[in-house]
Each structure stands twice: as structure tokens, then as C-alpha cells.
Amino acid sequence: xxxxxxxxxxxxxxxxxxxxxxxxxxxxxxxxxxxxxxxxxxxxxxxxxxxxxxxxxxxxxxxxxxxxxxxxxxxxxxxxxxxxxxxxxxxxxxxxxxxxxxxxxxxxxxxxxxxxxxxxxxxxxxxxxxxxxxxxxxxxxxxxxxxxxxxxxxxxxxxxxxxxxxxxxxxxxxxxxxxxxxxxxxxxxxxxxxxxxxx
Length: 199
Hints:
With 199 residues, the protein is α/β, with parallel strands linked by helices. Helix content is 44%, strand content 15%.
């Protein structure tokens, strides 16, 4: 990761924030916030998408055990449909930071947008591969959301949630056409909305 961010920003008052689940057609958008402990470093933190599922699970356990503070929050499918996915993602990130104890002195947010809040903060493009605390947040958020999609697989068999995690794959779109829209699908997203409009 970028040494600049390690040197200038890592510390007991710094939180990293990231979200997972903006692109899927189903499920909540999940965010996490993490304040790492400089005295208990965690090796191998990086963008969760670049890690195997097994490695993510291993790192998530280490993060929960070693971080000074961590929090996972969400915006629901209903909130996504009401607000739009960008605003729902920002809301989930806001909730994640609010859940930290202690509260951070400074917050670094993955991406190029900040929630509306009073925290001293800045966005970091590709922060999940540049800032360890953001990488840790991305790992916690993805492990949480992936686990929830496994549960949705059990609740709604036949949709393939365990495999595609709600993303608009060919198999997911075919399942939607043959099985219909479930309560966990985002009704304002194009493919889902089109099916509902066709009745």
C-alpha cells in the first residue's frame, strides 16, 4: 500500500470506511468502518475483491480481534429504492462510522464522495488498496454481505444468490424471469423494474 498513507494517516484516531453491494440487483448495501491499532498490525490488508474468500474470512477475524474499533452497518433494500443507491451507500457508511466506539478524529472514505456529516474527513479514490484502515473496512463489509447472500440462497432457492451475490449475471436474470421478483430485489434497478412493469 501507499507509504504516504501509512505515514501520514494511520493512527488511533483514524477510521477507514468502505461499502459493498452497490451494483447487485438484490440485498442490502453494507458498509464497515475500522480504526486499526498501530500496536497490533495486520499483515495482508488489501482490497477485498483481490482476496480469496478464505483469506477474507481469515483477515476479518483478525480485524475484529485486533482493531481498536470496528462497526458494520447497512442501508436496506427499501432505503435503496427510496433514496437511490448512491445516497443509500453514503447512509450506510455514515451509520458505520456512528457505530464506532471510540469515535474517530479523522475519517478516510473509499471513493470520491463523502456522506453529509460533521466528521473531519476526505475521500480516497481506490482507497481500499491504498489505506490499510479502508482495506480492513472493505474486508469486513464484504464478508458480512457475502454471508447474508448465503442466507438469501437458503430463503430463496433457485436464484443462485450464493454464486452471484445478487449481481446481474445471466443466470440471475434468467432466474428472475422464470421465478419472479422477490422481496429482497431492488425494484428501482433496471432489470427488476422492467420485469415488474411487464407484470
